[in-house]
Amino acid sequence: MAIPLTVNGVAHRLEVEPDAPLLWVLRDELHLTGSKFGCGIGACGACTVHVSGKAMRSCTVPLGSVVGADITTIEGLGAGALTAVQKAWIEHQVPQCGYCQPGMIMAVSALLAGNPQPTDAEVAIAVTNICRCGTYSRIRSAVRSLTRAAAGGGSRSGT
Amino acid sequence: MTTRRAVLIAAASAAGALLIGYSLWPSKWRRRADSLLSRPGERFVANWLKIADDDTITLIVPHCDMGTGIFTALAQMAAEELDAEWRTMHAETAPADWLFANGALAEGFVLDGRHMTRNSVPAFLQGAVAGAFGVIAAHINLQTTGGSSAVRMTGVYGMRVAAAAAREMLIRAAAARLHAPAAEFDTAASRVVHVPSGRSLRFGELAAAAAQYEPSSHPKLKSKSRYRLVGRSVPRFDVPDKVSGATRYGIDVDLPEIRYGAIKIAPVFGGKLVSVDEATVLHRRGIERIVRLDDAVVVIADRFWRARDAADALTPVFDGGANGVVSSQALRERHREALKNGPIKRDMTIGRGSDALQGIATVIERFYNVPYLAHAPLEPVNGTALFQKSGELSVWAGTQDALGARAFCAKLAGLDPHNVTFHQQPSGGAFGRRLPGHWNFLKYVVKTAMAAPGVPIKLIFTREQDLQHDYYRPNVTSRMRAALGKDGMPLVWVNDYTSDDAANAEAHVLYAIPNQAYGSVKVATHVPTGPWRSVEASWHGFFIESFIDELAYAARQDPLQYRLRLLKDKPRHAATLALAAEKAGWNNPLPAARGRGIAMVECFGTIATHIAEIEVSNSGELKVQRITSAADCGMAINPDGFKAQIEGGIVFGLSAALHGAITLDHGAVTQRNFPQYDMVRLGDCPDIEVHIHESDAPLGGAGEPGTPPVAPCITNAIFATTGVRIRELPVLGQPLRLPTPKPHDS
């Protein structure tokens, strides 16, 4: 029986087992390779996507549990244009190898969508993805620049 | 004994290494490069460097992109020599073809070989030598990315020289076009300018004619005082695609009719496959076949998760042989025994060496140990291979040496290298894991593809296989001994350490100590080891900088001042210490629960001093608040890129210092996945500040030097805070507060 799934606004019907991990459905069935495999047990966050707006680690999400949900991957995040988070990532030259960054960006984007001015402590709780290259201090700077912008733009950030 | 290292040095010398500059391509090689890579309207004007009619300049870089920013830095160096506008610069990965071998890298190490001995060819290159087409001829068949070498070797001895030669050829072409002497021309903003008349021609207009000339082997290089691009923090080429998710790594390779492989390798290194009951999984959806290898089983399926789940369900029988009893505890005891009983092989003695310890009443003796560590790049190692029934093999993977990988795959498949193509992919982290000599992932994918001709197969290690079948940073124990003079300064320094190979140059201290001795004792194990970000400096940095700290405290002296006193003849080293101390506020008082530790290590030509500021709670919980670093790499080509590498090296070193340990039980690795091999996360990451100290020294590396001082600056800070001296890593799990006396206990 085909399973319906909407990814980046496109509706699909997939002839796949309901226990297939969402990550591998995205990568192997839909050829959306921006979401990455890092650990397979939800420990590193490289596979983070949005499931109806919420950040989830897709390597441990069975396809059958997200039927009818709207899935957004890094490919669909900016819908053709870069988002503010992605622009901040460029501004702060965050990525090194870049492999964890789609997951990082998805985790941060979901957090900021619900809480545009998180404290450092809130960010630390929400974003526990692993970056093996060690770009955390730049991630922190990029997120701080976004929260400052949300708090009133350049007028406050300059002080 | 002819070592692999001796072969490399001999070959590098025989390669006709130019004492200044790089052997530039004659025009017939450039025509061959054009036939391989040039599109209409562009051509190679010098090695690695194409110029198009529209002024676009494309560098073909003989390195892999593993996130260190080298493509951008190399383009800065080339654009600088050419006087090209930055917007015209592009960079691509070189194909795995001998024409794009990186002779400059090997030559660089020879040129840099003021202290070179047979044993000092760097460890990261040792694996490359045997593999590269078997023969090392006019050029060394090498495209290795390692040893923090891309900018200081390929850039300095290669790209810069090729670009300067191309500039001279453009000028010759302009001189011929305008019938004026070449001496009357200069370059600026991607144009050749006739200075007297002010007339100018675009590079793109001249490139075709320039490409007809033979390059000078000694082109004139620009003086540093005229640099306008080198030394500037330009944004990296690779960042936008990494932010949009467009970068395709080895794991993202897609081909028509692709199949997926999941592997289960004998858990004990060197173990063999005895039997496997295929019937338990063959009936599952999508499972196509099971390939039995000597030491592993591979499940091939139409989707990766189906292959992986089936591999998980298999219960193959492996024979671990005699190694199936080895444990970390047993290895630890063997280290101590070997260091006590020897034989210690001395590789360097200064003054009276260890004899100077005789008759001294107080000898300070300490043992230090670091564990095995996995590289754990976030992209688990993987590869894709297609063996055509016609006898041709194609392989796609992220490695740290594409040309060597091509040779390796050809040899493994028993094919002529001409029948093998290797498609280098960006790596999702490498840190030494993908260097030559450490290619079990390529071995398994090629063997699997050979067993299933006609079908492209992507074999992906799960994180479990990746952690359990790495080539680990060695487990090393050091026995340090020292004696202090009346002034508290060390008179004797003796470092005896275990080694799974040879003596380590990184063991030798930079400090002025009149009597020194170094020696290693070989402790053979069945555990595969390999270069791990910063290699030998990752352990000797910890041993040296811990012990010198202990001596400073024994002498009741400030650890910073103590080091400075021992570095009076080393102004660069002293300057990084002083700069870090100033920026960290070394002398500013801290609350009782807080403390600072300092450590300085030179690694691949760059000196880095880190100062950690930490807090240890009453219950012994550690929080690393801040790491302040000062680093001297001569001149940073791209200062922001250099800082990013030092920042990353710090986090990498911090994960290792706090959490990292690969342990053995019954001959196999105990850790399975990230929860057992944990990493620093955003919330635990200290504030990191990197300051650059510029000097006139030759360029140093960027990717690795940030790592070695991290562990000792943390453990030194712990001692400063609580009086607990950590001599074995990792830190976490050990008590960090001295036990408080309990008067009511009987």
Q: What's the layout of helices and strands?
A:
The complex is a heterodimer of chains A (159) and B (746).
Chain A: E1 3-7, E2 10-14, H1 22-29, E3 48-51, E4 54-57, E5 70-72, H2 74-77, H3 84-91, H4 101-114, H5 120-126, H6 136-150, H7 154-157
Parallel strand pairs in A: 1-5
Antiparallel strand pairs in A: 1-2, 3-4, 3-5
Chain B: H1 4-14, H2 27-37, E1 42-46, E2 49-52, E3 57-61, H3 70-82, E4 89-93, H4 103-111, H5 123-131, H6 150-178, E5 185-188, E6 191-194, E7 200-202, H7 203-210, H8 239-244, E8 259-265, E9 272-275, H9 279-282, E10 287-293, E11 296-301, H10 304-313, E12 317-319, H11 328-341, E13 345-350, E14 364-370, E15 382-387, E16 393-397, H12 402-413, E17 420-424, H13 440-451, E18 457-460, H14 463-468, E19 476-484, E20 490-499, E21 515-522, H15 537-554, H16 559-565, H17 571-584, E22 594-603, E23 606-616, E24 622-632, H18 639-658, E25 664-665, E26 668-669, E27 687-692, H19 710-722
Parallel strand pairs in B: 3-4, 8-18, 16-17, 20-21, 24-27
Antiparallel strand pairs in B: 1-2, 2-3, 5-6, 6-7, 8-11, 9-12, 10-11, 13-21, 14-19, 15-16, 15-18, 19-20, 22-23, 23-24, 25-26
Work out the count of structural domains of chain A: 2
Helix % of chain A is 25-40%
Indicate the structural class of chain B.
Answer: alpha+beta
CATH class categorisation of the largest domain in chain A: Alpha Beta
CATH overall fold name of the largest domain in chain B? Aldehyde Oxidoreductase, domain 4
Q: What spatial order of strands do you see in the largest sheet of chain A?
A: 2-1-5-3-4
Main beta-sheet strand count, sense and barrel state of chain A: 5 strands, mixed
What is the CATH domain class of the largest domain in chain B?
A: Alpha Beta
CATH fold group of the largest domain in chain A = Ubiquitin-like (UB roll)
Question: How many beta-strand runs of chain B?
Answer: 27
**Largest sheet data of chain B:** 7 strands, mixed
